[in-house]
């Protein structure tokens, strides 16, 4: 009897805090298929939107032809990335061959950890020159189809969304509403929630990711309970809502 190989994909958000490192890696991976044209379209809209174009990070980075390409894992330096740095590095090193991870970015759409990107300042709730918010742009342009193709091409069996879903600024999970419907029954998908964490939700999700990968990575391809409590993360209950 043929046993289906189980493989997990973790989705994490980008972050507002970015730091251009002194050392810039030359070894950069390529974007996912189907993203280049969508990114160029969004960048063109950003360049025509005065309140977005004039942000210092955009002038230094994405709108500057001479700005360097930086590995995403090195550029993002928010609380989630600081807390999860060790396991993100292990993922890059191939320590967990059955686990994949993608960053969901307001500007770049979907980003690999070792993909080269430029500095920028944009969130999903920002409004473009045409009156459309960024997350609506990605919905309209079909970012969910790019991710769906990736999921099936890589043989992903489990998806874990660590994406925020709060309006008006951070509806990252919502970008993929059509995806969640289209893969239902084909791929197991869970949205990791921490109801009592409040503003510390991103840190708790990073602690969850670190704990799971370092203690029981096979957890991500196993049958999942509705909720979990971990001794190393006292006082918090993690809920798994089907996507």
SSE order and pairing:
Elements: E1 8-13, H1 36-47, H2 50-53, H3 56-60, E2 70-71, H4 72-75, H5 79-83, H6 85-92, E3 99-105, E4 109-111, E5 116-117, H7 134-141, H8 143-153, E6 158-161, E7 165-166, E8 170-171, H9 177-182, E9 188-193, H10 201-215, E10 227-229, E11 237-242
Parallel strand pairs: 1-3, 1-6, 6-9
Antiparallel strand pairs: 2-5, 3-4, 7-8, 9-11, 10-11
What features would you highlight for this structure?
single chain; alpha/beta; seven-stranded mixed sheet; 10 helices; 11 strands; globular
Overview of this protein structure:
- The protein is an alpha/beta fold and 243 residues long.
- It has one domain (8-242).
- The chain is built from 10 helices and 11 strands.
- It has helices spanning 36-47, 50-53, 56-60, 72-75, 79-83, 85-92, 134-141, 143-153, 177-182, 201-215, and strands spanning 8-13, 70-71, 99-105, 109-111, 116-117, 158-161, 165-166, 170-171, 188-193, 227-229, 237-242.
- The strands form 3 sheets. A 7-stranded mixed beta sheet has the order 4-3-1-6-9-11-10, sandwiched between helices. Strands 2-5 form a two-stranded antiparallel sheet. A two-stranded antiparallel ribbon has the order 7-8.
- Strand 3 and strand 4 form a beta hairpin.
- The chain is globular.
- The two termini are 30 Å apart.
- The model has no long low-confidence stretch (mean pLDDT 95).
